[in-house]
Write a structure and sequence with these properties.
It contains eleven helices and 16 strands. The chain is α+β, with helices and mostly antiparallel strands. The strands form six sheets. It has a five-stranded mixed sheet, covered by helices on one side. A three-stranded antiparallel sheet has the order 8-10-16. Strands 1-2 form a two-stranded antiparallel ribbon. α2 packs across α3 and α5 packs across α6. The longest helix is centred in the first third of the chain and has 23 residues. Bound molecules: zinc ion.
């Protein structure tokens, strides 16, 4: 473990030095108007320096200017983050870049991107290449494979339930529950778990297993409910009436002395970022947790990355940022906790409705970045996209 930590420290110092050098680098090399690709142009405008100086490449005074460091940032946003392919579990970017590949860029791009790639390569002194991800990034994680295997599932669930921290929720921990077009908006029972006829459709609930979903993050609730501006929306603030014992799956496990391939932390992280095909596993975890006397589960939202704008499955030199001690807080801040309470907690008087409001959506904003359009060389890899 000591060597492991030393390696991480070396990486972080290296990254830190690199970063510092680039902070000192104020030499303007090109600007957003130099690019032909529209997405790249907009991304460059967003991160570039806003001044009226003449661009040394294209003479534009309106483009936002890029230094070597900013050219690399742009490359990361557009070509790395912009090519993340989500797999059944996990995911990884298709393209990476580094200094070692300078002048050796080897990727197929659309015709309008060819010159732009050369500009970024020269400004950043980098080269781009197709990335061969480590297999754990694509879901080759032993505990995750055991969860998908029915004969091994029980055993691994038992282990998972004893691995994650237990938390007690008190009346200080309120959360929100949204209702779309409720029949009687002021009726408290509208804000309990869904009625029987709607059970078995979401992550943890099943026929005869109602679950109340909520989150302390109101905007996240709106995402989760897939609301539209036409909906009649109401929100209840719910508060526990007494201490509730819950398992916290949003916690980051940092005491594992194993690689990513054996990590329960990575397995659970990927499980909750996976779509409907993962619900069966989640339901069995919930059922077992209830049998063990838990009132519910805290879990990271499927929409965490949409909410925080963070980069899903982020790695440094092929190591998950979840496993780098210095980045633990950063990784933790990317996951937004949701709450699932078993049964019908409002009816059972485990939680109480403290307040109900109508919600009016006045404006919806999008925070977007761009990536290259799929080109023929990697089209076949993209057809197993997992859309929830
Ligand atoms: Zn320019």
């Amino acid at each position: 473990m000591a060597d492991f930590e030393k390696a991480y420290k070396a990486i972080m110092t290296f990254e830190g030095n690199n970063h510092r050098q680039e902070m000192e680098d104020t030499n303007i090399l090109l600007c957003s108007d130099c690019f032909r690709d529209e997405g790249l142009k907009i991304d460059a405008f967003k991160i570039g320096i806003d001044n009226k100086d003449k661009c040394p490449k294209c003479n534009s005074t309106n483009g936002h200017k890029l230094t070597k460091g900013l050219a690399k940032d742009l490359c990361y946003r557009f070509f790395v983050r912009g090519t993340i392919l989500k797999q059944k579990y996990g995911g990884a970017p298709l393209i990476q870049f580094n200094q070692q590949h300078f002048n050796k860029t080897d990727i197929d791009v659309s015709p309008w991107l060819v010159d732009d790639v050369k500009l970024i390569e020269q400004a950043g002194e980098i080269g781009m290449f197709y990335y061969g991800p480590r297999f754990w990034m694509l879901g080759e994680v032993e505990p995750l494979k055991s969860l998908q295997n029915e004969s091994k599932r029980n055993e691994i669930i038992e282990k998972i339930l004893t691995t994650y921290p237990i938390r007690e929720l008190t009346d200080k921990e309120y959360f929100y529950r949204i209702r779309v077009n409720p029949k009687i908006s002021h009726d408290f029972s509208e804000y309990d778990s869904a009625p029987d006829e709607f059970l078995g459709k979401n992550r943890f609930d099943d026929i005869d297993f109602p679950v109340l979903y909520g989150s302390p993050d109101l905007e996240l609730c709106l995402h989760e409910c897939r609301t539209t501006v036409e909906d009649n929306l109401f929100v209840a603030k719910l508060v526990p009436t007494h201490k509730l014992k819950v398992l916290d799956f949003s916690a980051l496990l940092d005491e594992e002395n194993v690689t990513e391939f054996e990590s329960i932390d990575i397995a659970i992280h990927f499980l909750f970022l996976a779509g409907k095909h993962s619900y069966n596993i989640c339901r069995q975890i919930a059922l077992k947790a209830k049998e063990k006397g838990f009132d519910g589960i805290i879990y990271p939202s499927y929409f965490s990355y949409i909410r925080t704008g963070a980069f899903p499955f982020e790695t440094i030199y092929g190591i998950s940022i979840r496993r780098i001690p210095q980045l633990k807080d950063y990784a933790q801040s990317q996951s937004i906790p949701n709450l699932a309470l078993f049964g019908r907690p409002v009816n059972e008087k485990k939680v109480t409705v403290e307040c109900i409001n109508k919600i009016i959506i006045n404006r919806v904003g999008y925070d977007i970045t761009f990536g290259p359009a799929y080109h023929k060389a990697y089209e076949e890899e993209s057809d197993e996209q997992d859309i929830k």
